[in-house]
Structure prediction request, 303 residues.
Amino acid sequence: MTTAGAPRDDYPYPRTSGDLTDEQLSMPVEDLVAIARHPLTVHPDTATLYHRLAREMADELRENNRRGEPTRWILPVGPKAQYPILARICNEERIGWGDVFAFHMDEFLDWQGRPVDPSHPFSFRGYCDRNLYRLLDPELRPRPENVVYPDVFDPDAYAERLRAVGGADTCFAGFGYRGHLAFNEPPTTRWHEYGVEEFAASTTRIVPLLDDTIVAHSHRVTGGYTRAIPRMAVTLGMAEILSARRLHLITDGGAWKRYIVRVLLLTTEPEVLLPVTLAYRHPDVRVTVDADSIAPCALGLDG
Prediction:
């Protein structure tokens, strides 16, 4: 495991908007780690990443329980393999979830904008039920009303509930190869140009998925069969993500995330078309990646 320190003020590269130079794209990992703009942890493989993430979450929860304080998390499905490990640790060490408020980032919708059933193979709610909450011993489980998903029929309820409990302590967020957090994808329309401030203020809403998101999901999950992928989603907004006191950005994507990892670590200007760069304005950001996701980008057929 490799860990870098705090962000640097003497950043050696010019400001960019995601148009990295060949030097930046091919920079050796040890050089990138040394100048990363955010505190950075590199795990040797995804298995180690999932176990360390689960351990970190269990430790945070146990410490909050010890102090008699609630645990308020914003949680992703992606990465997701840490959840069964987290459930096992909590069962073995008797770490209770009675004072946990779990705010989940998003959920798929069908083509008419209705929530998919938890039994649907792509349901995030169904995945978390099967791979986290039902795996916890009954006496350790959170209160059902404290497990919150964005509500397509009342989108403002998510932010209202988050404010009511005092905000999120930690937002754990994966990020896509185009830099999207949850389903805050790069807004692409010929009819409107979104400014950084406008996009940063976005709240819970219904979104159609970009074509390349559907292709990416099908490539990773369904063998390229795009018709199996839901066409819409409900997602928390960038405002909810950026409101968390701590922001932990994580990727386990491997080779196809190498570019966006370098964008996150090397560029200095927020860019709407690369939503993860809006994290630059957050005061407490950490980044965790596996070694494959931070390896140099191949710049040709011989790369």
The longest helix spans residues 46-67. The CA atoms of residues 117 and 248 lie 29 Å apart.
